[in-house]
Amino acid sequence: MAKKKEQSYDMSVLKGRQYSKSNSLINAKGTTSLLAQKIFSVGIQQAQLDERTGQLVTTLHGGDLRRIFGNKGGSFYEHIRDLVEPEKEKASLLDWRIIYTNDQTKELEALNVVTDCKFKDGILEMRYNNRITDQLYQLKENYTMFSLEETIPLKSIYSYRIYEILKSEFDKQSYIAHKRGENMDNSEPYILVMNLTDLKLRLGIIDPNENKEIINALKKSNIDFDYIEQLSQETAERKRDKGTNKTGKAKYSVFSTFRKNTLDKAKEELDEMTSIRFEYEPIKSGRGGRIHSIRFMIYDKRQRVQVVEKKQIRILTQDEKDEFIDNLNEIIDEKLKIKDLRAIAEAAEYDLGKVEKAYAVMSSMGGRVDNVTGFMIKAIRDGYDEPVKANKNRFHGFKQNTYDFDELERQLVDN
Question: Which spans in 136-182 are helix H?
């Protein structure tokens, strides 16, 4: 199989070109293609208001599109034509339907983003729904500005959407912090916690337009996302019965697959191509429980670099921490509680080498340590050396009775 050609972009054309969207639209729910999102962004960047209809209208010439999206041949125009006039059963720009909460009315609205669209003689013309004109044009508040230089090169629709969501949140929290006169430490991220099902809706993985019951559920003041997840599964099963879904399973219902194809891919792309980066941590309902939310840690790559001893910190996910605890349980041949193992892991900053070194020191003492947890924590904190022959009550100059290991353990484990 021939290797897919990497798409190139004329960055000189993209440089300095920006577009704005209201935060309501950024957090809208619905599904579309990556190309449609990019065409939409390029279009609103130079759209003009039709005073008669109140609609935003944009005209994009083929030459400009070619330069923006790369030096392609006729296939590029085929992509545009397919987006406007697709084959049977394929979605077009006119089918792009979103559901969002209007900040002014506080009501849930469902509408098509583009009302008119045609591609003729190498020119693409689009008219945006006039009900979202105030969400795109001459925005004064509750909006986010994006750079085409950062969004257009993104390769995944999920990376694109995650970037818009996180950039919007980062700018909002930066503005609030600045208004309050707060000076954040450069190593501190902004935090965003999102329900997993809500994130799937915003990414278009769960399409609310496929099931009216999902739309009804979204209209409620207290949204039951578990119920929406159930409705999504029921929709997938109906598709299986119709022969359009072989497995009968909702898309990315397995978290490991969702993580690989959305979060991990977006994490890599944003770090490479945009001004922000992020780490994330799944949030479970108890140890071994179901993952219900994602905690995002958002950093400004230009200013917020987290460094300790010139080594960049990588924040472990909860699954990685749990796996580390399991490894400790195998290394330390003692009957310790989970909270004790966790205290040891925290003291070692999840560095397995530190734990192994401290345990080797303790093992060389011939069972003369009564409080394993307290000793391990102290050995890790003070960096005890490799084991050598011990003398009576002294080990490498350390007198065992100098420290109260029980008190040390109590303080660290309780915290």
Answer: 148-151, 157-179
